[in-house]
Amino acid sequence: xxxxxxxxxxxxxxxxxxxxxxxxxxxxxxxxxxxxxxxxxxxxxxxxxxxxxxxxxxxxxxxxxxxxxxxxxxxxxxxxxxxxxxxxxxxxxxxxxxxxxxxxxxxxxxxxxxxxxxxxxxxxxxxxxxxxxxxxxxxxxxxxxxxxxxxxxxxxxxxxxxxxxxxxxxxxxxxxxxxxxxxxxxxxxxxxxxxxxxxxxxxxxxxxxxxxxxxxxxxxxxxxxxxxxxxxxxxxxxxxxxxxxxxxxxxxxxxxxxxxxxxxxxxxxxxxxxxxxxxxxxxxxxxxxxxxxxxxxxxxxxxxxxxxxxxxxxxxxxxxxxxxxxxxxxxxxxxxxxxxx
Length: 341
Known about the structure:
The chain is an alpha/beta fold. The chain has two domains: 4-212, Alpha-Beta Complex (DHBP synthase), CATH 3.90.870.10; 238-334, Rossmann fold (3-Layer(aba) Sandwich), CATH 3.40.50. Helix content is 31%, strand content 17%. The protein has an eleven-stranded mixed β-sheet, with helices on both faces. Helix 1 (11-19) crosses helix 6 (122-131) and helix 11 (288-302) packs parallel to helix 12. The longest helix is centred in the C-terminal third of the chain and has 15 residues, at 288-302. It is found in: Cytoplasm. Belongs to the SUA5 family. ATP binds at residues 53, 57, 113, 139, 147, 193, 233. L-threonine binds at residues 30, 62, 117, 177.
């Protein structure tokens, strides 16, 4: 199969391909998604096959409007409209109980709930609107590997396996959306996966408390949301987190052991260690925003076989605000492992 790129003038063609059951990768403000018609079980099954993703892992359903989502939801949480007004379109996914039989069970992982998102990308919203159907959209990569933040990342993983890719350059945020559980109208919202929409931002809008589910899903469990597995987003090269105070010791240890190591960090750290390591991927500045945008690209870049790395050291950030999303992805890519001297 020849995988083609779709540009602005070809969005109608991309929409028709999706409607007909083909797989088309699409851009969002977070990462690139692998799109398929959410109403066609065979098309959705192909998503799992192409990604190598377990079918117990539910998929996020992408819509072009709140009205489109309401066709499938059984009972809206009383805070829904307030949340939608403030955060849609945007990097926020909401989980609801759905009408019986409204979506194929392969979309929901056999659960009575489904996750919905309206992405903040004009090309993708136009394609969903033109297709007239909701589309599933897990990250457009090989399952378990770092998510794609450019069309080239998608092509690297999936060329020859999917019909096409809607190219819109690099994504703006760089990690997947925040997921909140609103399936029980009588309970407060709960964050199942942190993202760019933070607990603090949600609480300010709803004028109430938002819980955070800290449970890490093991391989034998069925998650309610994507991205809840214990280990995920992992390159083939081993990843290790390095605390602020441990960089000198970590680099010295690698040199003493003759371990070929790469570093992913902001300029402050990257410039200090660059002559003592085999490769460096440097964030564009030292902020958590730059780190979040660059993490997956860095993991992919340093995982190239031509570099021959044995280990990748990655900078950590405080787990607050956007740092929660960054550290959530980094911890899973590292299998929860920090450098320990």
